[in-house]
Amino acid sequence: MKLIVFDVDGTISDSQAHICHAMALGFEAVGLPAPSRAATLSIVGLSLPVAIARLAPDQDTATQAAIVEGYKASYFTSRAASPAPLYPGAADLLRKLAQRDDLFLGVATGKSRRGLDALLRHHGLEGIFVTRQVADDHPSKPSPEMLFAALADTGVNARDAVMIGDTTFDIEMGRAAGCGTIAVSWGYHPVSDLLAAGADRLVDTFAALEAALGDFVEMHV
User: Fold this and answer.
1) For position 221, what pLDDT does the model report?
2) d(CA 107, CA 147)
3) Distance between CA atoms of 115 and 29, rounded to whole angstroms?
4) 103 — phi, psi (to 5°)?
């Protein structure tokens, strides 16, 4: 069996509108100017307290905590009003891969469990992933702890697993866990950064991702 682990935001779901809006409101709630869109997207994938600490390093811990709570409240409201869309082709590929009897599918995300469950439920993907690792339970990416837990859940060796993501945090996490890594170009970190982080493969479409996964499985038979 092989394990295919997906990041969520920027990889299968285009949630940047929700993230940027909630981040702006979180900062405004404590009287601070909103970070730029580029700054906000640069921290997507990190656990929220770590992300806020990077965006507001000069603020004390109480202020950072207030931004976190403001972000959570704003994101929940935005998500309830209009759930983030999946990238075209994402759901089709996930359902196709889930039908294979030689693969486990998993998630490793900086989202909360509540946020992940809501997204999967909205898009009808509840039964797709056999292991779901979230920010509630682990240190932030790029710590490899999420992938170690996914490997333990499935009994797969690291050499037979691959991490797919759109940020350098995903690639660094995969490498730290000893897994293969595939970077997608349609997400939130520049392609040059993904390559510099050491991604084994870079893909531009879900069709190319499917082909790359086919190559990965063949190489690890």
Assistant:
1) 65
2) 9
3) 21
4) -130, 140
